[in-house]
Amino acid sequence: MAAHIGRRLRKGAATTAVAAAAVAALSASQAPGATVDDQGRQNTGDATSAPDTAADDSATGNSPYYTDLPPLNSPAPSPSAGSGEAGDRSAAEAGIPATVLDAYKKAEAALREKKAGCNLPWQLLAAIGKVESGQARGGRVTADGTTVTPILGPQLDGNGFALIRDTDNGAYDGNRMYDQAVGPMQFIPSTWSWAGRDGNGDGRKDPNNIYDAALAAGHYLCRFDWDLSEPGDLRKAILSYNNSTEYLNTVLSWLEYYRKGTHEIPDGTGALPEDRSDARPGVTPSAPGTTPPARPGKPSGSRPSPSPSAPGTGSPSAPPTTPPPPTTPPPSTPPTPTDTVHHLEDAGTGTLTAMAGHTFAERISTRAETEAGKAVAKVRIRFTIVGDTDTTFAGGESVATVTTDASGVAVAPALQAGEKTGAFAVQAAVAGRSVKGVPYKVTVTQRVADALTRVGEKELTCVAGGEFAEPVEVKATYGGEAAGKVAVTAKLVTSADDPAENDKGPYFKDADGKAIRTLTGLRTGPDGQLTLPKLYADGTAGTFLLRLTTAGGATLEVELTVEPAATPSPDPDPSADPDPSTDPSTEPSETPAA
Description:
Blueprint: H1 2-29, H2 84-94, E1 96-97, H3 98-114, H4 122-139, H5 189-195, H6 210-221, H7 231-241, H8 245-259, E2 264-265, H9 337-340, E3 343-346, E4 353-355, E5 365-369, E6 380-386, E7 392-393, E8 399-403, E9 409-411, E10 415-416, E11 422-430, E12 438-445, E13 451-454, E14 461-463, E15 473-478, E16 481-482, E17 487-493, E18 508-509, E19 515-516, E20 518-523, E21 529-531, E22 542-550, E23 555-563
Parallel strand pairs: 1-2, 4-12, 14-23
Antiparallel strand pairs: 3-5, 5-9, 6-8, 6-11, 7-10, 11-12, 13-15, 15-16, 15-21, 17-20, 17-22, 18-19, 22-23
Domain Transglycosylase SLT: 181-231
InterPro entries: Lysozyme-like_dom_sf, MltB-like, SLT_2
Region (Disordered): 28-91, 265-344, 562-594
């Protein structure tokens, strides 16, 4: 108990000190000339603006969080066993349950591969996991990482919290009236619907699974091309998770604590946090999704009325209670702009078609309207890419949220076509409301080239029965720029007027070494260039034609010359009569002089 009381006493002083230090550290690390206001926010104009972080589009819906601060002692080395109550609690607070720690580290590894420029540290996930759920309630998870019991935040009914009406029909939180933050990383259902990931490879995206939730949190923090090694981007990412300066400072405190070192503890042995951001005076906050217990030593519920004395005791009876005056119901909350939206309409979006790897010239425009067709401003429109595609919005995300302007129109970020061709859709919907949305058909076409030229001018020749020493090299362009990853077909044709495949002359070899005269599946490199496989010649001499065709219709014809093989000199026939002039037997003999 002494350790507990001491910890509570230091919290009031430590909170201010740690918060001030965190804000000061961020301010000092900003670009020269950057300033921070009295809420710890960087002033407008000092940096690029962060995306809107309204409650219905943050990860948690700005739900309550734990405000406990790290222990004063260093987290490493691990406190030894048997060090007393204070040491045991410190060890539990400093340590991270084994499965939970493994989930954070695996999420960091996955993001290092998928989004290396984000520089996500697993300690940031640990800091957020501590503040959101106390590391999944001290690591109370099954072997696959699923929480033993669901972790739910309070319903977001506008009563002291954000107002977010049900978006998932209770599928994740069991609540069909209002949304509640779910799982160890406390995602609200509307955010999990697009941010959810499968972190443990079981084919499901479960917000109650720490592997899934940690990977989803990592991707959420890494969107918008944020680099979390940069203090400004780190701050934006944390505030987008829960838009509170105190939340930012608390997460930064745990982040620095875990960066100094931590240790693994068995699942289920972690310390449960005690203080919540929504705690009221005189009420002990509980873990998310539970009912706050009565304070020790005090009865729960209303205070009982004093009992009247027994007849004949001479003690006065309690005065009769006066019925309370009728209460006036509180005024109804005025509707928000989002509440007035009846439907969405297309706002003049043109044809959405782009070549693979290119940026779409057309951007999606959507208009929010009332039932009477009046424009509604200041409404958040969520654009979600749906279907089997690797096309994304700028920044590599499949979801973008934009606020409507004075004319009720929201314009989505430009789409960046991936490499998968075909049609898919982008769905426009009102964030936090279930109203009629607008689907947009999008098409990605294959990469094409409009010109194809040969690289080099050396004649391509070989001897019949031999092989060509020089390879055929070409370059594809589109609009004068290098056309990379464009499909090319190479075919040895009969003649310029006859595109049929030639049955003699030069040829390529397939994987089995057999002669083939048509190659498909070729693609230019990033620089638009392509080097064809080696060419061989059969015994036929002459001039032959190689025709190359790209997707998009660009063509090039290359001449190939096969020279006749050299004819060797014939050997003399030994059976033929020898030339008499060379026969030594017919030569006259020389007579010696007398």
